[in-house]
Amino acid sequence: MPIMQQSGNPTLKNSLLSQFPAQQGVGQTMTLHGAMNKVLTCLVLVVVSALFTWNQYMSVLNATHSPAAAMSATSFYLWIGLIAGLILAVATSFKPMWSPVTAPLYAVAEGLFLGSMSALFNTTYPGIVIQAVLLTFAVMLVMWFLYRSGIIRVTNKLRTGIMAATGGVFLFYMVTMVVGFFGVHTGNLFYGSKLSIGISLVIVAIAAFNLLLDFDLIYRGANSGWPHYMEWYSAFALTVTLVWLYLELLRLLANLNSRG
Q1: Which of 10, 85, 86, 123 could bond to 109 as cystine, CB 3.0-4.6 Å?
Q2: What b-and-e string marks burial along 150-173, b requiring 16 or more CB atoms within 10 Å of the CB?
Q3: What are the structural domain ranges in the chain?
Q4: How confident is the model at residue 196 (pLDDT cuts 50, 70, 90)?
Q5: Running DSSP on this structure, what letter comes out for residue 116?
Q6: Contact predicate 10/244, CB 8 Å
Q7: Are 85 and 109 in contact (CB under 8 A)?
Q8: H helices present in the chain, as ranges
């Protein structure tokens, strides 16, 4: 499914990481509690929106017993979510002060996309979605523990390395997409081969390390008194990474199941 190659843009939130305010903002400032509330809000919006398209897909599937018909019935929501999510992510990355509006909208858009895509994968591999969800949050909790315990410290060197690796993943996505337009087959890099499993594992690891940047962003912002809108931006950044991580885990599990 080529769309999986285009569904995440892991460099969006990192491109402006070094440009965030480094001093006290004017008026109300960012707090850890406020940022956590915004993160929870975005995740709830993703789940509610995803359940909508999931239910739409399943209702058609139950009526027709045709995955193709179910996918066709929800393809509008899938493409709207994918395109709107990309536009909103770019806008939020370049204009963080818009995030109180764009971050919730991004969460809704991603939910529309994820619900339909997840239902399709779950039809092919029953139970794969709950596995991917549980793994996503398990990875998040592990990375949060590593960050808060100080086992892994986000230094400038580590931050640069993670951003470079993330940029490499984005370049890999773009190159495979472009050559695909010219008829070059790259499906073995994403599905059904040992190579695709290896690539998935590397990308999952890079996505997991991006969570460290998100946690560091939240704690630095709260401790430095960044402007209040950065609570929403931080929630957006973490949502981007979790969506990316979930999709990569979903693809990895699909690859493993296809070879089982």
Answers
A1: 85
A2: eeeebeeeebeebbebbeebbebb
A3: 21-258
A4: confident
A5: H
A6: yes
A7: yes
A8: 3-6, 32-64, 67-94, 99-124, 128-148, 156-181, 194-224, 230-258
Region 64-70: mean pLDDT is: 92
* Sign of the alpha-carbon dihedral angle for 248, 249, 253, 254: negative
Q: What is the rounded distance in angstroms from the CA atom of residue 43 to the CA atom of residue 20?
A: 23
Q: Tell me the Cα Rg of the chain.
A: 18
Summarize pLDDT for 160-193 with one digit per residue, the tens.
999 999 999 888 888 887 876 776 666 556 666 7
Average pLDDT, the chain: 87
pLDDT confidence of residue 186: 61
Count of CA atoms in the C-beta half-sphere (13 A) of 73: 22
Whether the CB-CB separation of 253 and 260 falls below 8 Å is answered with no
User: Taking the complete model, does pTM exceed 0.90, yes or no?
Assistant: no
